[in-house]
Design brief:
The structure holds 2 protein chains of 2 kinds. Chain A is an alpha+beta fold. Chain A is about 45% helix and about 20% strand. At the A-B interface, helix 8 and helix 16 of A face helix 3 and helix 10 of B.
Chain lengths: ~675, ~300
């Protein structure tokens, strides 16, 4: 017993000794960092940012906005205390408090290059302008321009461009961002979001009268939540709500410069900040922070929502984000009123560095950086893309292809592949010409010596013998159908040609070709990887559809004066499938050698194959059942309806069968328990 | 025996004599056409083929360069390999057969209606192919204009499908499809007229006979009677469609207003020839491209002959 106690004490002592080392090895990160993987889904990755400082001694009350000026001083819109706090990030102390008598609820703050401070106050319905020493310079109230009319003027956020034009996001304004000149004159609305109607709403728009429409909830565009202007004077906005607008980077006309909509995240975006490199940082109201490249590509996402715990780096409400001159992210929790900073890890810095170098055109240097990133994270899609692009610039196309393949970047892969293929063709050009010339000469010589066509006849005889084997004949007969569907189907109808076995073999070939087409195309055209496909569903779907179609068509046509019997109904689709089989096989093969430049060839082959098959099968049914055009179409529609009914019936029977089985089982159990014992 | 032989000999000489005169007459008859053909077609083509082996900048005399132009074309000319060739094939593949099928369908439909209406409609349908360039400038540049006054942009914006007008004619994503649309619209040319006359010339009794033989619908009528009895017109239409499809390069330039077209997206072989010949003044190289075009067109025409020509 004593021994045991001793052992326990020793064990606990050991544990306590180990504890510090354990906690040291753990990451300081409080949330996972996510990146997009090669298929476009979020994947966990190394930490990009670690929580750094948590500053809770500033006695902030619902801080609403942050801004960092060029001297690395953080301006906090401390709305609950009606003041702007100036906090030096380098020194870690408060260096000034801007309190002004007219402040009622200062919620937005912006500092120009000159050092002028702009404060937006929705309750005071004004934007104030101060100089460095906190002297009031100007205050902008509601513009009295007739254009502005009854629009509410409650400035939430403010931004100022290099000329001095003021951009205001106002509460409850659907018309867009209010743009004021330095003098306070109303210039117009800078940009506006699109009204997005649901399907039901757009139908209402068409059928409702004006009076009815007026009674509905007005359809208004989503409002902006924040605005930012970077050093180059480019305007960025975020939009409220989980919609398609997300972050926008605006040109001077107010249009969106991002080609694809930047990822909107899970919640409603609250703030956007852009650093000197052009990286875009956004905050979500549910605590997620996202980083985008200057072109709007998603880089990182981290953070999370928490409501009853105090964990640094998790938020109950995240209204704002800013980035200081050292690249650290600063955020404020709107409810709990503290500041939280994040430090980028070496991994994140490396990614940003490589991106920056690439944008400057220093491809070789960026290649080295990207390779370092790859050493840290072999599966980084960003890095593989970066390496690939650098290789593309260095004309190392095969290496570029490899990296684009890992990154799942089909467009660039196609570009690199075009070059590789071109080089290959150029290298073999002489060989090709030689082969063609040689073939031509041999054919000429062959024809010259074979004037009596003896060899020709021999070949024809062998062909005929092979063709006369019943099964091969039955299968090969299908090749005659695409060219003369009506005549050849007539031969099937009068039992001169075709057989059930032949049809079954053709179905099998179709199945194999279909599976190959679905799973084995070249990388550029194989949009869905084999491992993500439900092969069972494909197989069962294929078999079920053909079986259902054949049975239903037979049932429908037999009561509608159709002449074909079941065997023929089974054979018609099979014998018409040749065009689609050929097109699927040729697409599967040629997709390995074609780039996106020639994508239309594959489209054309597929369309021709499918349409040809449909026409041939249609004519087949028409011929075999001895129908007119109209009757054939009616029989097809009936077949489709019947197929749906049959599928529903089958489902019901399966479910009922289950129930029945359970019922019988329980009866047997009852009997076993009560009767026999 | 000898007598007979002599008689035959005599006949031969006399026929030889008369055939001599016959030949002269034929020669004279053919002379105007032959002369014109030689001067305006055969000689220029021969000169072009000759020029394609040279470097010629219009100012200095041509220098013989051997196969250099052709080698450059298939090994160095990235624009040609990457854009022009795929574009031309896409365009020809859709506009050629598409326009052909369209003209046949329209011709067949027109053949079913009364004479007066047919004449007017035929003229209306034939018009675009006659004065295509005017139509493109007046109608299509208006419809696809890149500001909000463009008809299509205005419509899309009114339906709130787009926020900003799309630069249809200057965007590499759209120009090709617009070119195809406009070409199809204006593809009812000579081939179409030939087909109408072909359909109208078919003997009505053939149809009646076919109905007696068991044909039951219009589709079978077309397959078994109409198409077989107008094979020559079908062939003519096919050749015209092919030539048309390979030569309609001006459409992309007329629509976008620039050669090369934006992003090389609407660049066809004919534009490429124009680009080298009349913008860069590399006549030798342009001639080489046009020889390649000639070979392509003749190959496809051969294909058409194989499909529609009389096999005898």
């Amino acid at each position: 017993m004593k021994k045991n106690v001793k052992a326990l004490v020793a064990f606990i002592a050991l544990l306590t000794l180990m504890m510090p080392t354990l906690s040291l090895s753990a990451s300081q990160a409080t949330s996972y960092t996510y990146v997009l993987n090669e298929k476009g889904y979020l994947n966990r990755t190394q930490d990009a940012y670690l929580p750094d400082k948590t500053i809770s001694d500033l006695e902030l009350m619902s801080p609403e906005d942050l801004f960092v000026d060029k001297d690395n001083i953080l301006y906090i819109a401390d709305s609950g205390n009606r003041r702007i706090v100036k906090y030096s990030i380098d020194k870690g102390i408060v260096v000034g408090l801007l309190e002004y008598e007219d402040f009622m609820n200062p919620r937005g703050v912006f500092v120009t290059k000159k050092g002028d401070i702009y404060v937006a106050d929705p309750t005071a319905k004004k934007v104030f302008q101060f100089d460095k020493e906190f002297n009031i310079l100007n205050s902008y109230g509601k513009p009295d321009s007739p254009n502005f009319s009854e629009t509410p003027f409650e400035p939430l956020r403010v931004a100022v461009d290099n000329i001095g034009n003021i951009y205001i996001v106002s509460e409850g304004v659907y018309n867009g961002v209010i743009q004021l000149a330095y003098s306070g004159e109303f210039l117009g609305y800078f940009t506006v979001n699109k009204t997005r109607l649901s399907f039901a709403q757009s139908i209402q728009n068409y059928i409702f009268t004006r009076a009815q429409l007026a009674n509905l909830v007005p359809r208004v565009p989503t409002t902006f939540s924040n605005i930012f202007i970077d050093n180059a004077g480019i305007v960025y906005t975020t939009t409220m709500g989980k919609n398609f607008d997300g972050i926008k980077k605006h040109n001077t006309a107010g249009g969106n410069m991002f080609k694809e909509e930047a990822w909107g995240g899970w919640g409603s975006l609250t703030d956007v900040y852009v650093d000197s490199q052009g990286l875009i940082y956004t905050s979500c109201n549910d605590g997620y922070i996202e980083v985008f490249s200057s072109a709007g590509e998603f880089i990182f996402e981290f953070g999370s929502y928490v409501f009853d715990l105090d964990v640094s780096g998790l938020y109950s409400n995240l209204p704002t984000i800013a980035v200081d001159n050292n690249g650290n992210i600063w955020t404020a929790d709107g409810e709990k009123g503290y500041l939280q900073s994040f430090k980028p890890t070496d991994y994140a810095l490396m990614v940003y560095g490589a991106m920056g170098l690439y944008e400057e055109g220093l491809y070789e240097e960026s290649l080295d950086k990207w390779n370092e990133v790859l050493r840290l994270n072999q599966m980084s899609v960003l890095a593989h893309n970066g390496v690939g692009k650098s290789y593309l610039h260095a004309q190392l196309y095969e290496d570029a292809m490899e990296h684009f393949k890992v990154a799942g970047n089909r467009e660039y892969y196609s570009e690199a592949f075009w070059e590789v293929r071109n080089n290959w063709i150029q290298g073999k050009l002489e060989l090709f010409i030689m082969i063609i010339v040689l073939l031509w000469i041999t054919i000429k010589i062959f024809k010259y010596f074979d004037k009596n066509k003896k060899i020709n006849k021999l070949l024809k005889n062998i062909k005929k013998k092979i063709y006369n084997i019943t099964i091969i004949h039955d299968v090969l007969f299908s090749f005659k159908i695409p060219k003369h569907p009506i005549d050849k189907y007539y031969e099937i109808r009068v039992f001169r040609e075709g057989s059930t076995v032949g049809a079954t073999i053709i179905y099998l070939i179709t199945f194999v070709a279909y599976i190959a087409y679905k799973t084995s195309k070249g990388f550029i055209y194989q949009y869905k990887a084999v491992e993500d496909m439900d092969i069972n569903a494909i197989i069962i779907g294929f078999i079920a559809i053909i079986t259902l179609f054949v049975i239903c068509n037979y049932l429908v046509t037999s009561i509608n004066d159709g002449d074909g019997n079941f065997k023929q109904v089974y054979m018609i689709p099979a014998y018409g499938l040749i065009p689609v089989i050929i097109s699927m096989i040729s697409i599967t093969i040629s997709s390995h050698y074609l780039t996106y430049n020639e994508a239309f060839i594959l489209d054309v082959i597929l369309y021709i194959g499918v349409i040809w098959t449909i026409i041939v099968i249609f004519l087949g049914f028409q011929t075999v059942h001895d129908y007119s055009f109209k009757e054939t179409i009616i029989s097809f529609i009936l077949t489709a309806v019947f197929m749906v009914i049959a599928a529903v019936m089958a489902l019901i029977i399966i479910i009922m069968g289950d129930q029945l089985f359970e019922f019988i089982k329980s009866i047997v159990k009852e009997m076993a328990q009560n009767v026999f014992i | 025996m000898k007598n007979i032989a002599m008689k035959i000999n005599e006949k031969k000489t006399s026929s030889l004599h008369s055939s001599h005169a016959e030949a002269l007459r034929t020669f004279l008859l053919l002379l105007p056409y032959g002369l014109l053909f030689t001067i305006f077609i055969a000689i220029p083509v021969a000169i072009a083929i000759g020029l394609s082996f040279s470097y010629f900048d219009v100012i200095n005399p041509p220098q013989y360069k051997g196969m250099l132009n052709y080698i450059t074309l298939i090994t160095q000319d990235e624009v040609f390999l990457k854009h022009v060739l795929p574009n031309t094939f896409k365009y020809a593949l859709i506009v050629g057969p598409g326009g052909y099928v369209l003209s046949f369908i329209l011709a067949w439909m027109l053949a079913q209606i009364q004479v007066k209406a047919r004449t007017i409609l035929t003229l209306a349908i034939y018009m675009p192919s006659m004065m295509g360039n005017v139509f493109v400038q007046v109608i299509f540049k208006n419809i696809f204009a890149g500001d909000q006054r463009g008809l299509l942009n205005s419509l899309l914006m009114r339906l709130s499908l787009i926020e900003q007008p799309i630069q249809f004619l200057l965007s590499p994503d759209y120009i090709m499809n617009i070119m195809i649309f406009v070409s199809l619209w204006s593809s009812m040319g000579m081939g179409f007229l030939a087909m109408i006359s072909g359909i109208l010339n078919i003997n009505e009794e053939l149809y009646e006979a076919a109905y007696v033989d068991g044909i039951r619908n219009r589709f079978q009528e077309i397959i078994y009677i109409t198409i077989p009895s107008m094979k020559p017109q079908m062939l003519f239409g096919a050749v015209m469609a092919i030539v048309n499809a390979f030569n309609m390069g001006w459409i992309g330039v007329a629509l976008s207003g620039s050669n090369p077209t934006p992003g090389n997206a609407g660049q066809l072989i004919a534009n490429h020839i124009d680009d080298y010949g009349f913008i860069r003044y590399e006549m030798g190289y342009a001639a080489a491209i046009s020889v390649v075009l000639l070979i392509m067109v003749s190959l496809f025409s051969k294909l058409a002959h194989g499909l529609f020509g009389e096999k005898d």
